[in-house]
Amino acid sequence: MEDIIRGFIHTFFGELSMKKIDKVIVLGGVGAVGIEASRDLVEYSDFSEIMIADFNIKKAKAFKREVKDRRVEIMKIDVNNEDELKNALKNYDIVTNALPFKYDDVVTKWAVRLGVHGVDVAASEYQLSLSPKAKEKGITFVPGIGATPGTTNLMAKKGVQLLDKVEEIEIFWAAFRCTAPSPGLLYTTIWEFEPELEDRVIYENGEFKQMPPFVGNKEVEFHEWIGKRLTVIVPHSETRTLPMLVPDIKRVVVRGTWPDETMDLLKTLLYYGFYENKPVDFDGVSIKPMSFMYKFLLQSPYAKKTKVWAYGLVVDVYGEKNGKKAMVRLKNWHPKPEEWGGERAYFKPIGIPLSIGTQFIAKGRVSGPGVLPPELAYDPDEFFEELERREIKITWELKYL
Predict the structure, then answer these.
(1) Which own/partner pairs from 218-221 qualify as long-range (CB within 8 Å, at least 24 positions apart)?
(2) Over the Cα atoms of the chain, what is R_g?
(3) From edge to edge, which strands make up the β-sheet containing 370-371?
(4) pTM to 2 decimal places
(5) 107, 90 Cβ separation under 8 angstroms
(6) Which backbone phi and psi does 195 adopt, to 5 degrees?
(7) Rounded to an integer, what distance in angstroms lies between the CA atom of residue 61 and that of residue 286?
(8) What is the three-class DSSP state of 268?
(9) Can you give the pLDDT at residue 19?
(10) Contact criterion met (CB below 8 Å) for 239 and 203
(11) What domains can be seen in the chain, in order of their start residue?
């Protein structure tokens, strides 16, 4: 029956878009995350053209030489120029956006206007607000389909499916990488702990409650490459989208952590007021402390080091099963980092789901048109099966409380 329904959806999308989803453009296609999505698309997808669009054309050329796939084309693009972005997107059926999250809204805006399907690593309220327009165009755009958000959303959905009633979902992640692997990822790390950040919320009894940084400490056991870690509440889109999946849920919380050296740095920046970024006099030169810190970290060799490259995910879903209080704990696992590409062991769990999400849309393996979070777009079992083909395993255990 599911195959029949899926076939109907695929046919329906084909009629709406009036064209086969055959050509993909990967924005930021040779960035740290994007290159993993690009590699996966080359290895697993059946697109007739895979356009690698990046400002770093030298690296894009090297990638094309590396993969030796006739479907791969390259393009230099500056997405700060909206005309350039628009002109690039209009020639493709689907966009895989692996750019830093500051570009998410503009990419989604133009994808929807042009009737181009798409996926994105992060998710924003603005993107989701474009869902009615996307439905009118007959396209699907899935924001937030990386590791977290993304895989965690589908882990939560699986936990929901395993219980009869759901009351609470807690998500935990451990992003084990160096402090400054790229400008975008450094910005994301520091941004998550801004003192007055409105996006750092929990969902509780029908309300979103803003939280300060470094609160809600909870220790959790990740896979063996990371182990037991202390996590804190962080701003992530799962908090806002999971109540769409379970409207009567009482509580949703997302907690995360980085390696000790990164967490210690963030606490120091917060304690000494770096986030205020008020100019200080340095021998007659006015310097903004946080602006200096960004530039310093991006050039510091110490900010490029870490002991372990890995990504840990844990999702706890609480509720009832067979009339009894119960919980489902879901965990991810990936091969030992040294055997899985070293630092790539951090980026693969982000880029691979981005690629799988792209391919699922192209094959009609989505619930319908619109701008949809992963938990409303994809079937978790189907997604986990594809992850396991790439050596990423999702396991779960149901316990009665």
Answers:
(1) 218/170, 218/172, 218/255, 220/172, 220/255, 220/314, 221/314
(2) 21
(3) 72-76, 49-54, 23-27, 94-97, 117-120, 140-142, 370-371
(4) 0.93
(5) no
(6) -55, -40
(7) 41
(8) helix
(9) 67
(10) yes
(11) 2-145+347-380 (3.40.50.720), 151-341+392-400 (3.30.360.10)
Neighbours of 270 (CB within 10 A): 17
Provide the β-strand partners of residue 285.
Answer: 282
DSSP-derived secondary structure for 94-134: EEEE-S-GGGHHHHHHHHHHHT-EEEESS--HHHHHTHHHH
Residue 16 has which token pair?
């709406």
What does the buried/exposed string (b/e) look like for 193-214 if buried means 16 or more CB atoms within 10 Å of the residue's CB? beeebebbbbbeeeeeeebebb
In the predicted model, residues of the chain with pLDDT beneath 50 are 1-18
Write out the two tokens for 80: 């700060």
- Tokens 């969902």 belong to which residue? 203
Residue 303's φ and ψ, nearest 5 degrees, are: -80, 0
130 token code pair = 């474009």
